[in-house]
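tl;dr need the bound structure. longer version: we got a ligand (acetylphosphate) that a collaborator sent over and nobodys looked at where it sits. i said id run it. heres the input, straight from their email, havent touched it
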Amino acid sequence: MTERPASRKGLILSLNSGSSSLKISLYRLESSSAAVPDSSDEPVTLIISSSLSSISRDATFSFAAVEPGVQVEKLKDEPAPQVKDHASGFTYFLDHLKRAVGIDREQIVHVCHRIVHGGDYFKPVVITKSTYHHIETLSDLAPLHNGAALSVIKVCLTELPHANSIAYFDTSFHYTIPTHISSYAIDQKIARPKGLRKYGFHGLSYAYILRAVSRHLKKASLSPISDTNLIVLHLGSGASACAIQKGRSFDTSMGLTPAAGLPGATRAGTIDPTLIFHYTHDAAKITHSAIGMRDVGITEAEDILNKRSGWNALTGTTDFGAIIKRRSQGDADAQLAFDLFVDRILDFVGAYFLKLSGAVDALVFSGGIGERAVDLRKVVVDQCKCLGFVLDDGKNTGVGDVEGEVVEIGDRVLVCRTDEQLEMARECALEDRFWV
Ligand SMILES: Nc1ncnc2c1ncn2[C@@H]1O[C@H](COP(=O)(O)OP(=O)(O)O)[C@@H](O)[C@H]1O
Ligand SMILES: CC(=O)OP(=O)(O)O
Ligand SMILES: [Mg+2]
């Protein structure tokens, strides 16, 4: 039993700036004097869940109170034409929060920010002038993310001046990747001082999934976290895979930047590195479209590979749900995007199975696509039968009807509803140094 100090009270706001969305959760700390009876009890309770989706093109807004007693006008995927970027999305949320009866924003003690690239930061840091500027210097290495998150931090510093802003990094989870896996085969005298290596991303999601799945497996009389071996697929607007060995990241598909590995909504994923010089003669030029992005300067090559490729380039839509629908209606572009995604996913599942010497407790699907795309899960898992992963078609189809963070959809195949906001709020509530 863990006693929490009595001084911990107030609200924690968690902000997740993804490439296509801003996900926002507001939590109340569980009764400060109460003991935590076991590891499955969360130290925080969700009060408000909100999100802005498809930011930068026809943004939509959702806002709902989860805790009884808080009155808000419930909104689901309402058009939000005023929202053009993450900062205006956050301001839009704050305006709605004002109307929520029962919530005083002065009670927000900490604001947790998901920062995709943390460079050599392995632990969360409180935002100060110097940490802010350090994160800013990493913006070029996560052009769809760090700048957007920093713009939200700026709004926080003005609108919630009494609250601490704390940065939580996607990269932290992957610091355990062995050097021979995180190094590229390039001159290390140049690579090391410049930090040119694999960092890996979606780490807050993988940390959440690891805990949730370990808990789930333990119920079925399997292992605690330090014994858990998983292949996890985080498939969202940005998609990545992770091999987890004994509860630690062993390899992941993204690299120095989130552009490597699996393709995504607007990202090409891994290509022949010289392809870009054949695709355009202007690879090194600073692009015009990059000028509209705050705090970030990127080249034409980075703009093409991050913003002008992926599902959008192949099919004209960033919505993988729409691609699956069009595929079922015989659309050839949608079929190509679908087949290509399956092919690249299999590359990683096969490689990671081998790297983990076949000792894999479960293959886990997560992220906006992984949690919802029944057809994609079916095709992927059916191809993995030879590795001992067997899908239960009924369970796969019925995931949406089953509650809970982890849903079993076959023999050693799981869906995990990942929650990066909860991962940050939970860590924040339990971290002594933030509550002195
Ligand atoms: N029913 C669905 N089937 C397949 N994909 C879906 C479905 N619903 C949403 N998606 C996909 O999920 C993606 C968003 O995933 P998410 O993990 O929330 O993204 P982000 O990277 O912004 O965090 C959307 O781009 C959309 O393509
Ligand atoms: C790292 C990354 O690509 O994140 P997201 O999927 O949230 O855009
Ligand atoms: Mg995301």
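gonna send this back to them w/ a short note. The domain at 223-269+309-420 is CATH 3.30.420.40 (Nucleotidyltransferase; domain 5).
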